[in-house]
Specification:
Layout: E1 13-14, E2 17-18, E3 25-30, E4 33-38, E5 43-46, H1 48-56, H2 64-71, H3 81-91, E6 101-105, H4 133-144, E7 150-156, H5 164-181, E8 184-190, H6 198-206, E9 210-214, H7 219-225, H8 233-250, E10 261-263, H9 274-283, E11 288-289, H10 301-307, H11 311-330, E12 336-337, H12 338-347, E13 368-371, E14 376-378, H13 381-388, E15 395-398, H14 404-408, H15 411-419, H16 441-448, H17 459-476, H18 480-489
Parallel strand pairs: 6-7, 6-13, 7-8, 8-9, 9-10, 11-12
Antiparallel strand pairs: 1-2, 3-4, 4-5, 13-14, 14-15
Helix pairs in contact: 4-5, 11-17
Bound molecules: iron/sulfur cluster (2 copies).
Length: 505
């Protein structure tokens, strides 16, 4: 591991005397102060004069600067090595697990023609784009080969409800297999809700399937982007969101933990309407919102002009909407921004939330696998989408032909691990945000033509750097209410209701 940007401070001396013995660290100017981070994931803000004193080694034994350095594990000789080892073991526990997220594309058919959904859908009458029962069973068999003790099967499409019998079959078949396998098994369904009905919902609730949907904002915004020519997409979605959330409330479950997960897709048309978007979510009883940018890969030029935006535009939207969310909380309305919550859980909560796209190495092949409707295997869902646009570079096998071990240890997965390990990325290795960040080889490939990215001109890095800079600035100048709010966001709670332990059927 190399740490070029920091001075080799243990060799620094004042009048020939060795004075400070610091662990390797990186630094960056944030909000008029200097932010330091170390490889354990600790951070520290120093004022400029304090930082200069540290660089000169001019820090007395009883100085408050030394106390701060020590408390945050920056003094090499005063580390609690057992505690640090335990923390690192916990942080990297995913390296010993194996893929836990298994994305099943049960059909490519969809009744919506969303403007930003390019290659990944087919018309409702398209032939040969549904997963068959046989392929579905082979996919479940393959997923159960994972060495991971927990296993989530996520249904995606197309619109998965368009192939409902196979969704049901997979759930029943997986539960049967789990009676022997004894994994922590979970199911998630990503649906536009347009094909939902009472019977399907009753089954999904009974089988404790986590339901996720898309909601792009108020009706004009949502319906303009999520086009459903046979119905009213916004009103249908909102109606089911209300009913599903009410179900959890009626069952006496905590609505903060149990609710339908709705995700907005943020386009150029959303950028001016962030506050409205968040309030729309709050009015529906949603307690969180995930402000994710949209990667405009594979779009036609016309769609890109209408819906695309630059990263600085997205970051300005993010900052403004974040502030609105903080104000809503100050006024008594619970609302979590999930990107911030995820990063705060790493930075303030010292946790590894195992979010596969902001992790080092990332989840491709070792944290997730995607299964095409025809049983082809991909490093991840994004890799599958690249395949749909005609490039099979992230295809890694076929469920009925290839062995699990060969797929997982094959050259593509190994390359993805290397390409997403931050210590090996020029730029990241020296970055103050390295302990909490992650890069995406698929994004690098689409944007720059290689899975190995150049962070200096990567929009993925530009986004992360921008969000980290903003969040750390907010931490640095947080008032007591805000700090308590950020700490609360940093403490994720599990959702045990969704977990099927091996159960007798
Ligand atoms: S390659 Fe990108 S999309 Fe795929 S798992 Fe890694 S970070 Fe996620
Ligand atoms: S992607 Fe950018 S922000 Fe993240 S660690 Fe690398 S250089 Fe830093």
């Amino acid at each position: 591991m190399s740490h070029h940007t920091h001075l080799p401070i243990d060799a620094l001396s004042v009048r020939g005397q060795k004075v400070l013995d610091l662990v390797p660290f990186r630094q960056r100017a944030v909000d008029g102060a200097v932010l330091l981070s170390n490889d354990f994931g600790d951070h520290l803000f120093l004022e400029n004069d304090e930082y200069q004193a540290v660089l000169k080694g001019d820090v007395a034994n009883d100085s408050p600067i030394r106390t701060k350095l020590k408390a945050n594990n920056f003094l090499a000789r005063e580390l609690d090595k057992d505690a640090i080892t335990a923390r690192l073991q916990e942080k990297y526990r995913f390296l010993r697990a194996g893929p836990s997220l298994h994305i099943f594309v049960v059909t490519l058919r969809c009744n919506h023609t969303c403007q930003y959904c390019h290659a990944s859908r087919a018309r409702m009458d398209a032939p040969d784009v549904d997963m068959s029962i046989e392929t579905a069973e082979r996919c479940v068999d393959f997923a159960f080969e994972t060495t991971s003790p927990s296993l989530t099967i996520e249904f995606q499409g197309g619109e998965p409800l368009a192939n409902w019998p196979v969704v049901e079959h997979i759930i029943e078949y997986a539960r049967q297999k789990n009676a022997l396998a004894g994994k922590s098994l979970m199911f998630a369904l990503v649906t536009n809700l347009s094909l939902m009905d009472e019977e399907k919902l009753a089954y999904l609730i009974d089988r404790r399937v986590q339901i996720c949907t898309s909601l792009d904002g108020p009706a004009d915004l949502h319906d303009g982007q999520r086009i459903w020519k046979d119905g009213k997409s916004h009103d249908t979605t909102v109606d089911w969101i209300r009913r599903i959330n009410q179900h959890y409330v009626d069952a006496g479950m905590d609505p903060h933990l149990y609710h339908i997960e709705a995700l907005p897709t943020i386009t150029k048309l959303t950028l001016e309407r962030g506050n409205e978007l968040v309030e729309h979510y709050a009015n529906l009883g949603c307690k969180s919102i995930f402000l994710r940018n949209l990667d405009p890969f594979g779009w036609g030029a016309a769609v890109k002009t209408r819906l695309g935006y630059t990263m600085p535009d997205f970051l300005a939207f993010y900052r403004k909407t974040f502030e609105h969310i903080v104000e809503m909380n100050r006024n008594g309305q619970d609302m979590v921004e999930r990107t911030a919550a995820l990063l705060f859980s790493k930075i303030l909560g010292n946790q590894e939330p195992n979010y596969l796209d902001i992790r080092s190495p990332c989840g491709a092949g070792i944290g997730q696998l995607a299964y095409g409707h025809d049983g082809r295997l991909f490093t991840c869902d994004e890799g599958r989408m690249v395949d749909r646009s005609g490039d099979d570079c992230f295809a890694i096998g076929q469920v009925d032909k290839d062995r699990y071990r060969d797929v997982i240890s094959g050259p593509t997965v190994r390359s993805m691990v290397l390409a997403s390990t931050l210590e090996a990325q020029p730029g990241c290795a020296n970055c103050v945000y390295k302990p909490w960040c992650g890069v995406c080889p698929v994004h690098n490939y689409c944007e720059q033509g290689s899975i190995h990215g150049r962070m200096a001109d990567s929009t993925y890095c530009q986004k992360h750097m921008g969000i980290f800079d903003f969040l750390m600035e907010r931490v640095h100048r947080a008032d007591p209410f805000e700090m308590a709010l950020f700490q609360r966001w940093a403490t994720p709670r599990g959702q045990p209701h969704y977990v099927h332990e091996a159960e007798s059927l």
